[in-house]
UniProtKB/TrEMBL annotation:
The chain crosses the membrane at residues 15-37. It comes from the Bacteria. Keywords: Membrane, Transmembrane, Transmembrane helix. This is AEC family transporter. It comes from Pseudomonas aeruginosa.
Length: 41
């Protein structure tokens, strides 16, 4: 999937897309933790 994306677009765009997705996932991890910890208790 990622290789297809890089093939369709320029490498710079693909790199920025990957960077954005990783940043978003890192931003969502604390949100999910704060969501789940009270539910698990």
């Amino acid at each position: 999937y990622l290789y297809a994306l890089r093939g369709n677009r320029s490498p710079d765009q693909g790199a920025s897309l990957v960077l954005c997705s990783t940043l978003l996932s890192f931003a969502f991890i604390p949100l999910l933790l704060t969501w789940w910890l009270p539910a698990l208790r």
